Amino acid sequence: MAPVILFPAIDLKDGLAVRLEQGDMARATVFNRDPAAQAGEFEAIGFRYLHLVDLDGAFAGRPVNGAAVDRILETVSIPVQLGGGIRDMKTVEGWLGKGVNRVILGTAAVRDPDFVKEAARTHPGRVAVGLDARDGRVAVEGWAETSDLPAEDIARRFEDAGVAAIIYTDIARDGLLKGLNMDATIALADAVSIPVIASGGLASLADVEALIEPRAAKLAGAITGRALYDGRLDPGAALALVAGRR
Question: Which helix (H) or strand (E) holds 139?
Answer without folding.
Answer: strand 137-140
